[in-house]
Design brief:
Layout: H1 14-19, E1 59-60, H2 61-74, E2 89-92, E3 94-95, E4 103-104, E5 109-113, H3 118-127, E6 131-136, E7 154-158, E8 161-168, E9 171-178, H4 192-202, E10 208-211, H5 218-226, E11 230-233, H6 238-250, H7 252-255
Parallel strand pairs: 3-8, 5-6, 10-11
Antiparallel strand pairs: 1-4, 2-5, 6-7, 8-9
Helix pairs in contact: 2-3, 4-5
Length: 277
C-alpha cells in the first residue's frame, strides 16, 4: 500500500545531494564580493537592490533578504526603521555547515518570519527567484501537551520542503522536512545529540534503538546508518511520520534499504492508537 501524501513530494536522492554539496553554495570567479550590509541600519538607509552575478546569476544572502525587506515595506508590514533581521529567519533549502555566506540560486531559500501577509509572501515568491517559500511563524510546531491541538506555522506561499545534511562519524544523511510543521534544527558539525549517538554506538550499547519522539527521523536513521540491528521510529504527530517516510526513500541507498512497505495508513493527524505505517 502506498502512503498517500508523501509520494507526491519530490525529493532528490541523498546520494546525489551529497555528491554535489561542496559546490552548491560557492561563488563563481565572476561573483561580486559580499555587500556586508549593516544589520543595524533601517530600510531607509539601505540600498534599493543588489544585482546578481552576471555570469552564474546567483545572489548573496544579503541581496535576497534586502529584496524581501523592501517588499514587506511596500506592503506596509515594515517601516523605514526596520532592519534586515526583521524579515525573519533565512533557511537555505539544503542546510549544510558552511564557513562562508552562501551564494543562492533559484528556489534555494525559505523565509520564516512574523507579521507577513499572504499577499506579501506571494509577491516575495513571485518577484524574488531565490525564494522558494514563505512561512508565518506562530510558535514551535508539533504537539506540546496531551489533549491540546497541535501547532503548525502557516505556509503562506510556495513550498516549505527543505533538507539538512546531518553528519556523524559513521557518515552523512539528508533529512527532509516540511519546515512549517517541523521545528528548526540548524545543521552544525558539533551537534550534541549526534555526539551521544556516536559514543553509544562505539561502546556497542545501541544495537536496538527506539527513537520515541523521532520528528523527521534524524537520530533513529543515523543509528541505522551506524549499524544498529533494529530501529523503531515513533511520533504522535502525523507530519513527522510523513517526513520519516520521505527520508527512508531519500536515504535508501545510504541505509541499504531494499524494500519499503506500507502496512497501514494513518488517517489521524494526532495518533491515539499504535499504527504501523
Amino acid at each position: 500500500m502506498k502512503y498517500p501524501d508523501y509520494e507526491k513530494a519530490f525529493v532528490e536522492p541523498a546520494i546525489a545531494v551529497l555528491a554535489g554539496i561542496e559546490e552548491r553554495y560557492l561563488a563563481c570567479p565572476d561573483c561580486p564580493p559580499e555587500p556586508n550590509l549593516d544589520k543595524t541600519r533601517g530600510c531607509r538607509d539601505l540600498p534599493g537592490r543588489i544585482k546578481r552575478c552576471h555570469s552564474c546569476g546567483r545572489a548573496t544572502l544579503d541581496a535576497v533578504m534586502l529584496d524581501a525587506l523592501h517588499i514587506l515595506h511596500d506592503f506596509g508590514l515594515r517601516d523605514e526603521r526596520e532592519t534586515l533581521r526583521s524579515v525573519g529567519s533565512p533557511l537555505v533549502v539544503l542546510g549544510y555547515p558552511l564557513a562562508y555566506s552562501p551564494r543562492l540560486g533559484t528556489d534555494s531559500l525559505i523565509i520564516q518570519g512574523e507579521n507577513i501577509s499572504r499577499e506579501a509572501a506571494q509577491a516575495m515568491v513571485e518577484q524574488i527567484s531565490e525564494i522558494r517559500g514563505v512561512i508565518l511563524f506562530q510558535g514551535v510546531p508539533g504537539m506540546h501537551k496531551k489533549g491540546t491541538a497541535p501547532l503548525e506555522n502557516a505556509l503562506l506561499a510556495g513550498s516549505d520542503l527543505r533538507a539538512d545534511v546531518c553528519q556523524s562519524l559513521f557518515g552523512e544523511l539528508v533529512i527532509y522536512k516540511n519546515q512549517s510543521k517541523i521545528h528548526i534544527e540548524f545543521s552544525r558539525q558539533n551537534a550534541p545529540k549526534m555526539r551521544i549517538i556516536e559514543r553509544l554506538m562505539l561502546q556497542g550499547k545501541a544495537s536496538r534503538v527506539v527513537d520515541g519522539l523521532c520528528g523527521p527521523g534524524t537520530l533513529g536513521l543515523m543509528c541505522a546508518l551506524a549499524g544498529a540491528r533494529e530501529v523503531v521510529l515513533n511520533d504522535v504527530w502525523l507530519p513527522a511520520v510523513q517526513n520519516v517516510l520521505l527520508n527512508l526513500k531519500a536515504n535508501r541507498d545510504l541505509l541499504g534499504i531494499e524494500r519499503i512497505e506500507y502496512p497501514q495508513v494513518s488517517s489521524h493527524e494526532v495518533g491515539t492508537e499504535p499504527v504501523l505505517v
